[in-house]
Write a structure and sequence with these properties.
The protein is an alpha+beta fold. 48% of the residues lie in helices and 13% in strands. It has a three-stranded antiparallel sheet with strand order 1-3-2.
């Protein structure tokens, strides 16, 4: 539990120094979620808080789909292939 907090603090400080890294961090996070969903046997990834903005970006670009259950958002594999999503912006 201690390691993710340290990494989050480091990532936050680096993104303040080099704002362009924020986009790369978002892309890496989305790719990790996509890989976790592929072959997961129907399991989903629940998202909340600041992750929801990144998840929305990933869903817009076809990496996965966002659904809701009782108002709580979760990710599931997308039916569209990532290359069909158009250019990443």
């Amino acid at each position: 539990m201690r390691k993710p907090r340290w990494m989050d603090v480091l990532r936050e400080r680096l993104s303040l120094l080099v704002p362009e890294w924020r986009g790369w961090g978002r892309l890496v996070w989305c790719i990790r979620q996509q890989r976790a969903l592929v072959g997961s046997g129907g399991r989903v990834v629940w998202v909340r808080g600041p992750e929801l903005a990144w998840a929305t970006w990933g869903a817009r670009h076809g990496l996965f789909a966002i659904e809701q259950m009782d108002g709580l958002p979760y990710l599931q594999p997308s039916s569209a292939a990532p290359h069909d999503a158009g250019p990443a912006r």
